């Protein structure tokens, strides 16, 4: 009798846990479903040629999302230029060079940066970074793509540092010892052996960091000035710009449910979803390839 | 002759190494110094604004005076709400992946789904929450809708850290327990989970810290611009600290700078406390570990 009870209980628990495991798939499908069901009507409300035109002015029914997509790209590119070199080099320093005590200080600091809410960075952007840039570069306004890029760099850095550092720590010590035994310096070992061995992990770190910057919302909305101008040259970095995320965040609260504007905002959400999906699939492919190669080395 | 050439090469390499090391040191320190600077800056400018009244009073005069009590309470409610949904579900999903899941296509799909959930922009979660919870399920802009949205966003963090913690428990523990006649669930519940608790807690705190600091997902699902009272039920909208900071720093003209810095400081203190908790749990677990 008691045994029977235990067995039944075990069965129920197993089912519950299995269902919880599957729930992630359910949520992704639900998200996809709601984006599609609210976003695709945009294609019927607005002509395709209009949707991919250069003018975003919803009050007069201009729904060109091109400046928004390019705006996101400009800011993301700028952020990568900041975050990738600083992130990777900091990871190399923490993993390979820094003395133990300095590691113990730097790691929690990077983690703290990861935990800072994006509104806090946006706030500092408004009060510190943008006036500084305005005055030093002599710009009409400090709320520019560059300001957004610098702060977004700060958001991507923790991701890049911690994943790259993991990748470097996973390189077996025998690699380093072998290289040092051959008479190479530690510097040569780092760039000739350790970093190449951790290459795919570092690449994944970069992809995930970039993925975070594309999707970042609050900081960008607060510091980039939110003007939907088509970026055409490098000059765009020093001008206000508007990203996809900021557009959704700032306009969704004011639209009528079911209006063309509402559907177009969901459509932008779909585009964003696709962008990040792409980045993540590439990143996860890199990481699984890495696994296979290291398995090959081990066997 | 050859000897000296070799020697000078070694000297050159060592010199390059020294130069490279110093350069990397400078660069890395340049990366972390701003973080310290930000903390000091916020504490320095925010501290004068902090008073008992500031953290315990209702905002008044269109938020230009008074305190931020409803925002603090709101963030607390949202965090608890998020925890209620995401912690049990996340831990159960991690148990499935680490203890039950066979190696097959479905498991692969689950992992891909988790990676995707982790990568979806927070504002897209906001859209999803609006579509599903606010409109379709008719929960309205409420603490409930916002908490549910935040918990789905938090799930991947909790799942991946918990799974890692469970996998770190040695296989031999499980083998012994099962060989003594314990069922699989008894083994997990009495043996594996207790061993993994520090790792799980770390994941939970990190996940909730992120959720509590988020603004974009609650923008259209539960955040109130200004609500000079505490929410009465989970179906009420609520003020929240990060959203309040956004509002007072961009949407309200003539906002006293003091109140803004005070609000940032309260948020920062909250993040710092969470981070310290994580660090303490981790180092204590490392010291206590017997395997």
Descriptive terms for the model:
heterodimer, A: 299 residues, mainly alpha, MetI-like fold, two-stranded antiparallel sheet, globular, disordered C terminus, B: 291 residues, 11 helices, 77% helix
The CATH superfamily of chain A is identified as: MetI-like
Q: Number of domains in the coordinates of chain A?
A: 1
Secondary-structure-based class of chain A equals mainly alpha
CATH class category label of chain B? Mainly Alpha
In quaternary terms, these chains amount to heterodimer
What helical percentage do the residues of chain B reach?
A: over 70%
**What is the succession of H and E elements of chain B?**
HHEEHHHHHHHHH
CATH architecture annotation name of chain B: Orthogonal Bundle
Evaluate the radius of gyration of chain A: 24 Å
Proportion of beta-strand residues of chain A: under 5%
Strand order of the largest sheet of chain B: 1-2
Write the layout of secondary structure elements.
The complex is a heterodimer of chains A (299) and B (291).
Chain A: H1 2-39, H2 41-45, H3 48-51, E1 56-57, E2 62-63, H4 66-97, H5 100-115, H6 118-137, H7 145-169, H8 173-181, H9 186-197, H10 199-215, H11 218-223, H12 244-251, H13 260-298
Antiparallel strand pairs in A: 1-2
Chain B: H1 2-46, H2 52-56, E1 59-60, E2 65-66, H3 69-100, H4 105-119, H5 122-136, H6 143-167, H7 171-179, H8 184-213, H9 216-219, H10 241-251, H11 257-288
Antiparallel strand pairs in B: 1-2
């Amino acid at each position: 009798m008691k045994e029977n009870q235990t067995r039944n209980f075990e069965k129920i628990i197993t089912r519950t846990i299995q269902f919880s495991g599957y729930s992630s798939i359910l949520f992704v499908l639900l998200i996809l479903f709601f984006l599609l069901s609210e976003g695709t009507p945009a294609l019927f409300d607005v002509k395709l040629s209009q949707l991919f035109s250069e003018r975003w002015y919803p009050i007069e029914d201009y729904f060109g999302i091109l400046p928004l997509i390019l705006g996101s790209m400009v800011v993301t590119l700028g952020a990568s230029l900041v975050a990738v070199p600083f992130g990777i080099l900091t990871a190399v320093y923490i993993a390979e060079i820094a003395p133990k005590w300095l590691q113990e200080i730097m790691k929690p600091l990077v983690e703290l940066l990861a935990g800072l809410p994006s509104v806090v960075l946006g706030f500092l952007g408004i009060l510190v970074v943008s006036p500084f840039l305005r005055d030093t570069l002599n710009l009409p306004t400090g709320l520019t793509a560059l300001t957004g890029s610098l702060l977004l760099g700060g958001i991507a850095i923790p991701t890049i540092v911690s994943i790259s550092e993991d990748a470097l720590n996973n390189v077996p010590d025998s690699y380093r010892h072998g290289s040092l035994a051959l008479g190479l310096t530690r510097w040569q070992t780092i760039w000739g052996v350790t970093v190449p061995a951790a290459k795919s992990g570092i690449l994944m770190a970069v992809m995930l960091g970039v993925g975070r910057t594309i999707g970042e919302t609050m900081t960008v909305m607060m510091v980039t000035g939110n003007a939907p101008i088509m970026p055409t040259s490098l000059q765009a970095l020093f001008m206000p710009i508007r990203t996809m995320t900021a557009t959704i965040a700032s306009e969704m609260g004011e639209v009528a449910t079911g209006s063309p504007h509402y559907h177009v905002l969901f459509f932008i959400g779909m585009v964003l979803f696709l962008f990040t999906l792409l980045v993540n699939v590439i990143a996860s492919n890199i990481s699984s390839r890495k696994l296979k190669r290291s398995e090959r080395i081990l066997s | 002759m050859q000897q000296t050439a070799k020697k000078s090469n070694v000297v050159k390499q060592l010199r390059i190494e020294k130069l490279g090391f110093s350069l990397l040191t400078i660069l890395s320190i340049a990366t972390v110094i701003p973080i310290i600077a930000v903390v000091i800056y916020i504490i320095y400018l925010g501290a004068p604004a902090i008073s008992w009244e500031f953290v315990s009073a209702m905002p008044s005069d269109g938020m230009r005076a008074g305190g931020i009590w409803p925002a603090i309470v709101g963030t607390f409610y949202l965090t608890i709400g998020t925890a209620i949904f995401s912690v049990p579900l996340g831990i159960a999903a991690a148990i499935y992946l680490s203890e039950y899941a066979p190696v097959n296509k479905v498991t692969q799909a689950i992992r891909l789904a988790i990676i995707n959930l982790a990568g979806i922009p927070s504002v897209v979660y906001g859209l999803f929450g609006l579509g599903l919870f606010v409109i379709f399920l008719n929960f309205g802009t409420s603490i409930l809708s916002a908490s549910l949205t935040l918990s789905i966003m938090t799930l991947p963090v909790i799942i991946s850290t918990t799974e890692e913690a469970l996998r770190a428990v040695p296989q031999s523990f499980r083998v012994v327990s099962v060989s003594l006649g314990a069922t699989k669930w008894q083994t997990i519940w009495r043996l594996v989970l207790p061993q993994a608790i520090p790792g799980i807690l770390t994941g939970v705190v990190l996940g909730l810290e992120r959720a509590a600091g988020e603004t974009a997902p609650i923008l259209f699902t539960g955040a109130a611009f200004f609500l000079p009272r505490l929410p009465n039920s989970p179906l009420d909208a609520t003020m929240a600290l990060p959203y309040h900071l956004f509002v007072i720093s961009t949407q309200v003209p003539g906002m006293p700078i003091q109140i803004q810095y005070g609000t940032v400081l309260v948020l920062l203190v909250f993040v710092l406390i969470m981070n310290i908790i994580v660090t303490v749990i981790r180092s204590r677990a490392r010291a206590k570990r017997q395997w």
